[in-house]
Structure formats: C-alpha cells, structure tokens
Amino acid sequence: MGDPIVIIAPEHDWHAQAVRDRLHAMGAEAMILDTGRFPDQMRISLGEQLDDVEIDGRRITPAAVYLRDLALNPSGPASGLAAEMTADWRRTMAALHERADFVMSLLHRWEAAGVPVYNPLSAFPRITKPYQIALLAAAGLPVPVTSWTNDPDRVRTLAAAGPLIYKPVVGGAATRAVDERDLGDDRLALLRAAPVCFQQRMPGSDVRVYVVDGEVVASIAIASDAIDFRGHELGMQVFPLDDRLREICIRATAVLGLRFTGMDLKLDAHGEPKILELNPSAMFVGFDQQAGTDVLGALCAALARSTPARLAAVG
Fold first, then answer.
1. Considering the domain 145-200, what is its CATH architecture?
2. What is the pLDDT of residue 71?
3. Where in the chain are all domains bearing CATH 3.30.1490?
4. Cis preceding-peptide flag for 119 (omega within 30 of 0)
5. Residue pair 277/263 in contact by the 8 Å Cβ criterion
6. What local confidence, expressed as pLDDT, does residue 230 receive?
7. CB burial of residue 81 (10 Å; 0-12, 13-18, 19+)
8. Which of 8, 154, 157, 303 could pair with 64 in a Cys bridge, judged by C-beta atoms 3.0 to 4.6 Å apart?
C-alpha cells in the first residue's frame, strides 16, 4: 500500500469528505486524520527520525497533506472539556498545551521531510490578520485603511476620516458598521477587554478568489445587501479577473507563503479592489455549487500530483 494523501480535519467536516471522495474517484488513496480524536481515541508515536511517524500502528509519510482543521481547541458539550476545566483547570490547560505541541510537531516533521502541505504551519505566523495586512501593504499590494486597537482616541480619529466597519481580530463574529453609539464612552470602554479591528468601509462588490500553487483557479462575485456577506448571499457568479488583478492575487499568496487560499477582496468607492484577507483554510464547496466553479477539483489535482503515476486521472 502506498503513502496516502492525508486530510487533517474532523471526520464530519464536509469539505474534508468532499476532498477525500474526489481523490478516491481519481484513484488516489486518501484518509481523514481527525486529530480531535488524539490522544483519547487515537494512538500516535513520533520517534527521533523525521519520518518515524506511526498512527494507529501504521507508519505514515503522506504523499501530500491538506490541512483543513487541526482541532486544537476542542469545545462543546460532547468534548467534556467544560467538566474537566471545572474539576482541574490547570491540569486541563497543561494537557491541551501538550497535545497541541505534539500535533503541531507532527505537521512540522512532515513539512521538513518534504511533504507538500496545503498549507504548511511555517506560513501560519504570517497569516494572523494584523500581520498579514501589514505584509501585503509592505509588498505594495492594495489593502484598506485598517487599525487593530484598544485605544478609543484612535478609533475616533479613524471615524472622523470616513465610514468604518468593525470586526474581531481573529474572526468568528459578523462584521458591523460603526455608528454614533459605537463611538460613545460606554461602548469604547469595552476595548479594555480586547482589541478590535476597525477598517475603512467600502461600498463595492465582494469578490472571492481562489489560488492553488500560484494559479488563480476561480474568482467569484458575491451579491449581498449586507456588510458581511456570510449567510446573506443573494447570488454568485464567475468574476473575470484582468491581468493586473490576477497578478495581485498571485503575489499576495506568495507573500504569505500559501499553497492554497481563498482570498476576500472588496471594491472601494472608486471601483478599486482592496484585499481584506487571505484564508489558509477557506470554504469552497458551497461556492463551487453556487457559482459553477471547481475549486475542489483544482485542490485535489494539486494534492494528487504528489502521488505515483498510477493514478487513473488528475484534474
């Protein structure tokens, strides 16, 4: 049996399942590695050599890896984490830290051994949003006026220059417009708990662009009447890129060291595109279904290029 393509994700993740099933249809061996099952339900051993990786009794050096979700922060009633934290939060935090370091070491080993990883952990320090936007701007790529801050005076100065939106530093909550109430002392006092991202509000269309191995494989315009299109999509269609915008997307991906990304852009008041973010584990199945694109196929073809020539087909 040859080396499989490893998809790191929870077993129930529909993107992981779609990638596995497409790879199987192409004749490649693919497996979902649910690191959320480790260490309670999965045995992993790492020896002193980079390639000494054994998972449930099988020695594995993948042909390629698609990193969908490392599951380093288990939560929810089924995980039992809340009860463990209540019983002994120090022990639970220490165990989670040990687990995270172990799992990340596994990915670092595979990358160091030359396994193509979509996307490698070595790129992850560059994709935190406050850092990635700064890197893109330093490379001369178009980004909106943005500030991550807990300083009320900074927020008021930004708001005086034009309309703003705000959103979490990491994500997980909807983007909202800054209004007069948000600039009051009570609201801005909440910044003492955590910083927030404030960004120039742009009225133009939302565009999602997918890049795989330095090639734009899909570009989609998303119709929505909401500031945050997620969950408010009115329609999607292929959005042709001119050579300049195509090169911008490819360069942005290279700056952050990503093999695969779904990047979000938005048009400003002058119709100029600005890069909002590059996502290293972007959703694509729903976009393919609505826009008629095949990001799934492009990603699977890239993963399969690393497998032996015995594959029935690639692409």
1. 2-Layer Sandwich (3.30)
2. 84
3. 145-200
4. yes
5. yes
6. 65
7. middle
8. 303
CA distances from 122 to 97, 126, 212, 252 (A): 19, 8, 17, 16
Lowest-pLDDT range of 37-46, 135-144, 251-260: 37-46
Q: Which two three-digit tokens encode residue 309?
A: 């020539």
Mean pLDDT score of the chain, rounded to an integer? 89
- Report the amino acid identity of residue 122: S
Which CATH architecture fits 5-121? 3-Layer(aba) Sandwich (3.40)
Q: Say how many residues make up the chain.
A: 315
Alpha carbon separation from 129 to 48, 125, 146, 170 (Å, rounded): 35, 10, 11, 7
Distance, CA of 124 to CA of 273 (rounded, Å): 24
Q: What is the pLDDT of residues 39-87, one digit of tens each?
A: 889 999 999 999 999 999 999 999 999 999 998 776 544 455 666 666 6
User: For residue 182, is pLDDT > 90?
Assistant: yes
Q: How far apart are CA 5 and CA 306, in angstroms?
A: 9
**How far is it, in rounded angstroms, from Cα 306 to Cα 297?**
15
At the second CATH level, the architecture of 206-294 is 2-Layer Sandwich (3.30)
CATH 3.40.50 boundaries in the chain: 5-121
